[in-house]
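User: Hi! I'm working on a homework problem where we have to compare a predicted structure to a textbook description. Could you give me the structure for the chain below?
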Amino acid sequence: MCGICGQYNYLDGAPVSRQDIEGMADSIAHRGPDDEGYFIAGSVGLGFRRLSIIDLEGGHQPMSDEEKSVWVVFNGEIYNFPEVKRELESYGHRFRTRSDTEVIVHGYKQWGDDVFNHLNGMFGLAIWDVRKQRLVLARDPFGIKLIYYSLKNGQLHFGSEIRAVRSGADEPAEVDPNSLNLFLRYRFTPSPRTIFDGIQKLAAGTMLVCENGTASVRRWYGNRPVPFSPPKSVGQAREELAELYRQAMKRHLLSDVPVGLLLSGGVDSGLLLALMNLYGESWQTYTVGYGTSFSDDELADAADTARRFGARHTSVMLDRKSFEEALPAIVAQLEEPIASSSIVPMYFVCKRAREDVKVALIGQGPDELFGGYRRHLGIQYGSYWRALPAWMRAPLVRAIMALPRNEALKRGVHSLGSGDRIQKYQQVLSLLPGDEIDALFHDGLLDRDAGNELLECWKDLLPLMSETDELGGFQFLEMRSTLPDELLMYGDKLSMAHGLEGRVPYLDKEVVEYVERLPARFKVHFGTRKWLHRKVAGEFLPREVLTRKKRGFAVNVVDEWFRGSMTAGMTDIVMNSDSLLYRYLRPSAVQRIFLEHQSGQNDYHKILFSLMVFEEWLRVQLSSDVGVGMART
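Assistant: Happy to help. Predicted structure tokens:
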């Protein structure tokens, strides 16, 4: 796990300054405190900061083959590199290290761009082909790792974080109002966009190629889930999934440094601990707690799970004062606004874990793969609603829409009426209807089709989901949008802020490709979410763990703190004409939402929370030395 960066003057071939590349690498030094390296050759420069995990002595980057014809900088882990290495050796390739990076070097020489389809892992990487004068950037299939880039005047700057790209740019980045529009709709900015005009991020499973004076982006991961034929029986699927979990865990424990686990009190991380015990014992585990004053606290549950499996457990205590003091630093570390209260406990638990371990497993993924959210119930059973005669649906819709507050229910009912699956998916994910978000902005700031940008982001994915059922199609998009662009993004940023590598075994390539071929009834079954996943968990976990309430690091407590801070501080933000968000948004529109929320007429806490995060983010940007402006369309 590392940080990478670089520059390629692909149009005019002007030489790259080593000082510039070193400055870009210095900006992400927190990602790699153990080592640094550089490759500068005329118009191309690569920078690298290393967090040593595998082959501590021999994994220095940039790494090349013996002929120095291919150079690689790589952030991530290739979990199947021993198998890939053996295959390449059978073709005559000779290896000098035990590093997983070297299989990328030789794999590219053997297979070209198809090397990525041979890899099972997480990666954001760059490959420089000396003979072809060709630079390739690529991001792993499910976007666990990040690659940001800018293309301007024939120059490519790229890096694991935005700060590396901005460090190499000639002028401050500016907020893109259309991307801000997407953030306010979905709480994150979907790939390939970022909040900044002119800076993009590779979408999960895509690659950028610079050669012959041109730069182009295309999808390299084109897996199209096809249902199993004949269909799997429940017993067969349960046994196969359990074995896939075992093998994924074996791969994800590959490390030359200590490995720990971020442990909640629930099923997903509990199952990870049980699987870890198949290959070792007395693992380090960590959870976040808030003390006995909160009924939703999960300190006791997590400690009980750890005790049952013989783990060495550490509880991280978080109070409101620490939360409020750390929030600006957390927002700054994210680089883009993310309106999720989970960012706070994630930051603190990663900070504590890094005192003992360099690698921590995280139980992210089953909710998206198996239908763990309430929205999945609506997607799965929406056909029953649409089957009702219009004369029955209409009065029900009117009654629900007339309810005070209950915004989530209203959005769900509104989306159920749509027969277009993509339009329905958009409506399910959006915090407010698109026209209400558009109305917040000053006239002239937005493109006419600003609200359709999410469809544009998804466009090349649509043919790949042609054989999925209704729920499977929604999950396919979540796995390549909400998961990488929100949850995995802040997981990467906040773990690497402390030099901690986060690994997500449930997002093992073999696991995901198997689950995406299963029918919806294996995921949401008679109203039970994550049905097959829980069946497998039942083989490893005691009943007491299986039946616990889902809490996810007790984010409800943090939600309460956010609401308290919002109540205290939102009035000052909303009623202050000097608030930074009013550079983009109309005070009267924002104040209307705030007043309707205060009166109890509507529940707008989610959009108000997003506005507060955006204001905090703008203040952090204003106080930084790179500054922030506004890009007008």
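For your comparison, note the following. The mean pLDDT is 88. The chain has 25 helices and 20 strands. Good luck with the assignment!
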